[in-house]
């Protein structure tokens, strides 16, 4: 499942502004997706200009791009911590009065398991988004990565939780999307989700679920790229 719309110029502004927050010596979590790709390219240019960082990619896609632009890479188990992570989102709750303000749905690129691992390990998690991602409440289907043997039993449990699961199909092949971890993805429609924290807890408790795309209480800042600049939302 990919996200709709969002101009590339707005994504580029958000990604490039977030990259400016990275400092010399930082260990940087490198998220996945078209918005984060702009941040990775900007970091590659900064490395060419002398910035010393080490990146931790969250997917095959971000690893390949980081290598292409010359960012030295490392692993979570080879560092003491992650200073900052930059990552995109499919939806961001943008309502300072809502308890779920800052909650995200991620996983449009099926990379949310490793993204959550790296983003949650970071001292600062910077979300990069275009305005089409902002919402008053989460309502897109929640991507749920599942062990392949478990996808039918997990689908039954998702129904019991009030969701409508769909096995994500590969766009150009006659078969399902297979994640970097060798698993499958169920996109689970729950409609409007006013209590993402509760839903996250219920999803995590289902045997066979590897990780779901609800990121609650993790984001520190959202950089929203607009046609005429970048807005920094906390
Ligand atoms: C990948 C993700 C992406 O960050 C999310 O889908 C946003 O992608 P894009 O920046 O291309 O709109 O969660 O798993």
UniProtKB/TrEMBL annotation:
A GO term, aspect molecular function: ribose-5-phosphate isomerase activity
Name the UniProt record assigns to this protein: Ribose-5-phosphate isomerase A
Basic and acidic residues composition bias: residue spans: 1-20
Family (UniProt): Belongs to the ribose 5-phosphate isomerase family.
Record's keyword annotation contains RNA-binding: no
Lineage: Archaea, Methanobacteriati, Methanobacteriota, Stenosarchaea group, Halobacteria
Pfam families hit by this protein: Rib_5-P_isom_A
Function statement: Catalyzes the reversible conversion of ribose-5-phosphate to ribulose 5-phosphate.
Quaternary context: Homotetramer.
Alphabetic keyword roster: Isomerase
Class of the enzyme per the UniProt entry, highest EC level: isomerase
GO biological process, one term: pentose-phosphate shunt, non-oxidative branch
Gene: rpiA
Binding site for substrate: 32-35, 87-90, 106-109, 133
Biochemical pathway: Carbohydrate degradation; pentose phosphate pathway; D-ribose 5-phosphate from D-ribulose 5-phosphate (non-oxidative stage): step 1/1
Region annotation Disordered: where it falls in the sequence: 1-21
Catalytic site positions: 115 (proton acceptor)
EC numbers on record: 5.3.1.6
Highest taxon listed in the record's lineage: Archaea
Catalytic reaction list: aldehydo-D-ribose 5-phosphate = D-ribulose 5-phosphate
């Amino acid at each position: 499942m990919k996200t709709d719309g969002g101009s590339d110029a707005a994504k580029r502004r958000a990604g490039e502004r977030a990259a400016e927050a990275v400092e010399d010596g930082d260990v940087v979590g490198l998220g996945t997706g078209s918005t984060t790709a702009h941040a990775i390219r900007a970091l590659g240019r900064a490395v060419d200009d002398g910035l010393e960082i080490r990146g931790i990619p969250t997917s095959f896609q971000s690893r390949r791009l980081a290598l292409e632009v010359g960012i030295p890479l490392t692993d979570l188990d080879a560092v003491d911590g992650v200073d900052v992570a930059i990552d995109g989102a499919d939806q961001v709750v943008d309502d300072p009065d809502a308890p779920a303000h800052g909650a995200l749905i991620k996983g449009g690129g099926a990379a949310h398991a490793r993204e959550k691992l790296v983003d949650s390990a970071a001292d600062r998690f910077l979300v990069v988004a275009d305005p089409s991602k902002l919402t008053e409440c989460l309502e897109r289907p929640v991507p749920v990565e599942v062990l392949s043997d478990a996808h039918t039993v997990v689908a039954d449990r998702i129904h019991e939780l009030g969701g409508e699961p769909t096995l994500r199909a590969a766009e150009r092949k006659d078969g399902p999307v297979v994640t970097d971890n060798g698993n499958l993805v169920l996109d689970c429609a729950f409609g409007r989700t006013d209590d993402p924290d509760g839903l996250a807890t219920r999803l995590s408790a289902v045997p066979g679920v590897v990780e779901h795309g609800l990121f609650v209480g993790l984001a520190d800042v959202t950089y929203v790229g607009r046609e005429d600049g970048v807005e920094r939302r906390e």
